[in-house]
Amino acid sequence: MDGGVCAAAGFLAGSLKAGIKRVFSEKDDLAVVLSESPCVAAGVFTQNRVQAAPVLISKKNLGSGCHRGVVLNSGNANACTGEQGLADAEEMCRLAAEKFGGSQENYLVCSTGRIGVPMPMEKVRDGFDGLPERLSCEGNREAAVAIMTSDTHPKEAAFSFSLGGKQVKVGGMAKGAGMINPNMATMLCVITTDAELDGKLAQQILADVVERTFNRITIDGDMSTNDTVLLLGNGKSGVKIMEDDAEATGAFTEVVERVCADLARMIVGDGEGTTKIVEIDLRGASSLADAKKAAEAVANSVLLKCAWAGQDPNWGRIVDALGYSGADFDPSAIDIFYDELHLVKGGQLGPADPKKVKQVAEKQEFTITIDLGGGDATYRVLSSDLTEEYVRLNLSE
Amino acid sequence: MDGGVCAAAGFLAGSLKAGIKRVFSEKDDLAVVLSESPCVAAGVFTQNRVQAAPVLISKKNLGSGCHRGVVLNSGNANACTGEQGLADAEEMCRLAAEKFGGSQENYLVCSTGRIGVPMPMEKVRDGFDGLPERLSCEGNREAAVAIMTSDTHPKEAAFSFSLGGKQVKVGGMAKGAGMINPNMATMLCVITTDAELDGKLAQQILADVVERTFNRITIDGDMSTNDTVLLLGNGKSGVKIMEDDAEATGAFTEVVERVCADLARMIVGDGEGTTKIVEIDLRGASSLADAKKAAEAVANSVLLKCAWAGQDPNWGRIVDALGYSGADFDPSAIDIFYDELHLVKGGQLGPADPKKVKQVAEKQEFTITIDLGGGDATYRVLSSDLTEEYVRLNLSE
Predict the structure, then answer these.
(1) Interface predicted TM-score (ipTM)
(2) How many domains is chain A partitioned into structurally?
(3) For A172-229, how does the pLDDT look when each residue is reduced to its tens digit (9 = 90+)?
(4) H-helix or E-strand spanning residue B381
(5) B residues 199-228 closer than 8 Å to A (CB)
């Protein structure tokens, strides 16, 4: 369904151009997602030791237990900005409270953009003056555009499910593009729902879903200082998700996962300069830790990502990446498939027709299934190719 | 001094074009380095779990304790080639013994090139027929060229020192280019010396030196199935290096390290598509493990390597890489210098003039000193930039 963060009942969004970017840009750069009534919130944040001011302030404010909305900006990460950065992130929450009600602690804040540059607070303050009139229940797309950095298109998803005759909606928006890696990267994501949530359960569901979606994508192996995934639930649907109600919890989790999986796939597909989505389906590992190590080494191999850009169904580089991954396996037991084609059998060239394998490598999306032949553990990661365009985009900020 | 692997007395080298590459190439691809008399050998090999046939055979033959030389080829890695690959690598040693004397076990073998393709043994056999007449004490440069793959120039180094009025020479050749990473990558290196060595001591010295040189360079974070560094000592100088003679051992180790350090730097400088050598000098870590993690995260950050290609003295990406490195540190204690310019102080923008920092980033070689401010542990790594040319070169093999 349409609607992104406004799909769920009682959520509004809006944005405008505050001029936060140092270089001139036509794009909006300040956005807000607001619940008409107080809501419950959960958050998952970057595991980077260096955490941006908005991450630290959002974590702190999550403790308040009562929420109204999220303020987001692109063009400045407010990271490595010291005490002033913390004060600026707090002021952004305070400005939101002044304009939209509640107190500073009721707001969360997300920033993305250049690191180490002080937030231009005068522009942010002026921006807030104009935000209230931009707010609407159709502002979702505008807000999704406002948080874009090098993304080429906005990313939104929404799904619904019925429980006891009532419809529950879950929608979200995300931005990604550069620095995407397991454990997230410069990615921001806000998910809204009109389900009624318990704070602790919401946190647990969000953490589980993020582990299976946003933590399984990689573009360049980097992880940013600002990564944030937030979930807001305002209860407007009249459906309460209780921990002891397995049916409701299961249905809700499934829909949150669909929203997150869709957004995660959009992020990989829109990675800087990427032209392909490559799914790594790792099987037959002797432990989950080994499966993860092996899958991530393949997904992050710069050499392999270049080969994918060249539509080269290279398997030597796959075997090589498995070999240095640190995973335990028998090299002579490895099987590798490009989609269903058996390219490597027992560690050596397999029976697949090279021309057909090449055709798979030419597709925009394909799956590389790797069977280590040593156990039952599995792991999946979404990766992408690495193109000259990626390098060009990252020569400087 | 000149001479590469032929600098030391009693070493010969030679090469020819056997036609091992599947695609037509004008370049020699089969080489031999030979000692006129039996010699002692030591070897350090890839830590990749998938090890090419020549690595496995060389490891086995090292056990013989008596050596004559090394056979090397480019154009085919003889990796992921199963039992046939092992038989082929052994046959290469046997062919060398037939042509140059001794037995199969006296020879070591190194291969580099495409993975998973059977070695074209008919061409190799024909090649061996022509090798003896190519052998000379001036064949070092030819051999250094023959082992090149995507290297743009051959890599040789040689130094000497005097002990008790006698001169000892140490020389070597290497190839690198792609897949260079700590713990080596598709790099081959042969070092020869006319010192008389004990096998156990030679192994210890080589392992120590490799740890401080070839294991401290990175181009693309990959590690190959074929990496090999060999040291041969034939005693022709009449100088014996004994473990209990600290002066001799120290002097010899220092010269081996100079040869390896020079070759390692050449490898980084000639990495595929690279235009810059960037030295990461990590200080102030609370442990060696943390220093290594932090330095390697910075040296391997794809985003940073792109910034260096763009001559952008980016520090946000440095702090970000430190943050996800897993090293323990206080973000507000980080100092970063581009050469001597103080770019980051206490985790925030420092006093350096941005224009001057930019000039450093425009140099072909510069040092980024990072002080974590938390202890005495240090680590150095040589890295390089990542250019569009690198991607172009690796679109396919």
Answers:
(1) 0.79
(2) 2
(3) 999 986 644 444 347 899 999 999 999 999 999 999 999 999 988 876 556 678 889 9
(4) strand B377-384
(5) 220-225
What is d(CA A309, CA B390) in angstroms, rounded to the nearest whole number?
12
pTM, rounded to two decimals:
0.85
Domain region containing B155:
4-269
Q: Which of B51, B302, B394 sits opposite A220 (nearest CB)?
A: B302
Residues of B in contact with A88 (CB under 8 A): none
Q: What is the pLDDT of residues B55-93, one digit of tens each?
A: 999 999 999 989 999 999 999 999 999 999 999 999 999
Q: Are residues B248 and B301 in the same domain?
A: no
A208 and A282 co-located in one domain: no
Over residues A333-392, the pLDDT tens digits come to: 999 999 999 999 999 999 999 999 999 999 999 999 999 999 999 999 999 988 888 777
How far lies B370's CA from each of A295, B47, B328, B331, in Å? 31, 28, 14, 12
A77 at interface of B, judged by CB pairs closer than 8 A: yes
Which amino acid is it at A218? T
Contact B316 A115 (CB under 8 A): yes
Q: How far is the CA of B12 from the CAs of B15, B31, B72, B139, in angstroms? A: 11, 11, 14, 7
Which of A239, A267, A295 marks a domain boundary?
A: A267
**Domain ends where: A237, A267, A297?**
A267
